[in-house]
Amino acid sequence: MSPWPESNWTAAQEFVILGFSGWPQGLRLLLFTFLLPLYLATLAGNLLILGLAIVEPALHTPMYFFLGALSAVEVAYTLVLTPRMLAGFLLPPGGQAVARATCAAQMGLFVALGGSECLLLAAMALDRYLAICRPLSYPQLMTTGLCWCLLASCCAGGSILALGLTTAIFQLPFCRGGLVNHVFCDLPAVLVLACGNRQLQERVLLAACLLLLVLPLALILLSYTRVLVVILGVGGPAGRRKAFNTVASHLTVAVLHYGCATAMYARPLSSRDLEEDKLVSLIYISLTPLLYPAIYTLRNRDVQGALQRAVSGRTPGTVHQADIN
C-alpha cells in the first residue's frame, strides 16, 4: 500500500517523460549524433528486406514471408519509440510532456509489437523445423494460408495482451506525479508511479512475461535442438554448413530478443533501478533492431541475389533455395 494519503491520489492527465534531460547538454547532443544514424540505418535495412520480400519472386517462400513480417514489425517498433526519444535529446531540460492517452497508446503499441515479435520468432522456428525435419511434406504443411494464419495469430496475441496490460495499469490512481523516469512510457516506469495495491498488475506483468518469453523460447529451443540433430545426421558438408548458418542466425536473434526482454521485464518492481533500465533501453531500442537485418538476411545469398536483380532490373533466373538445401 502507498504511504501517500488517498486524498493525494489522482488520475494523472499528463505524464512527463524525463529521458536523459538531466544529463549535460553536450552529452545529450553526442548521444543524438550517435543514435540518429542508427535509427536511419535500422529503417533502411528493415524496409529493404520488407521490399525485397514483397517484390522478388525468388523470395516468395515461407521463410522470407516471416522475415518480411519481422522487418515490418521492427519498422513499426522503431517508429513508435525512437523519434520521441531522439527529440528528447534536443529539448531543454525538464522532459517531454505527453497526454495520458498518448502515453497509454505508446505503451500499448510497444507491448503489441514486442509481443507479436516474440510469437513471430516462435513461428519462424516452427517453419525451420518443418523445412529441415519434414522436407518431403513441408510444401503441403507450410502453405500460404497457414503462413497468414500464423502471422495473424501472432499479431492478435500481442494486441490482446497489450490491451489487457495497458488497461490494467492505467486503471490505477497515481500519487507520485507523472514523472516517467524513462525514454518512453514503459510498463515498469509507469507502474512505479501508481498508488494503492498494485500486486495484481505486477502479477499480470509477470504472467505476460511467462506467456511471451518463457513458452515461446522453450518452443524455439526445442525446435532448433531437433533441427541441429537432423543437420548433423544427414546431408553433405556443404548442405550442413548452409543449414547450420541459417539456424545460427535465427538463434542469435532469439537470444538477443529474449535476453533483453527477460532482463528488462521478468523482475519485480522492488528490484529495479530505473536509471539502469533507461540505459539498457538504448540497446533494445536502437541497437538490436539494427542487428536483425544484418544477422538474418543481408549476408544471405538469396537476398544478395535479389538485391542485385532489383538494382540491375534483371528478372530472377535460377532460384537458390533457402539455406536448408
UniProtKB/TrEMBL annotation:
UniProt-annotated location(s): Cell membrane
Keywords: Cell membrane, G-protein coupled receptor, Membrane, Olfaction, Receptor, Sensory transduction, Transducer, Transmembrane, Transmembrane helix
Entry's Gene Ontology cellular component terms: plasma membrane
Membrane topology annotation: Multi-pass membrane protein
Function: Putative odorant or sperm cell receptor.
Top-level taxon of the source organism: Eukaryota
Protein name: Olfactory receptor
Listed Pfam families: 7tm_4 (PF13853)
Sequence ranges assigned to domain G-protein coupled receptors family 1 profile in this UniProt record: 45-296
InterPro entries named among the record's database cross-references: GPCR_Rhodpsn, GPCR_Rhodpsn_7TM, Olfact_rcpt
TM segment ranges: 29-52, 64-87, 107-126, 146-172, 204-227, 247-267, 279-298
GO MF annotations, alphabetized: G protein-coupled receptor activity; olfactory receptor activity
Family from the record: Belongs to the G-protein coupled receptor 1 family.
SUPFAM superfamilies hit by this protein: Family A G protein-coupled receptor-like (SSF81321)
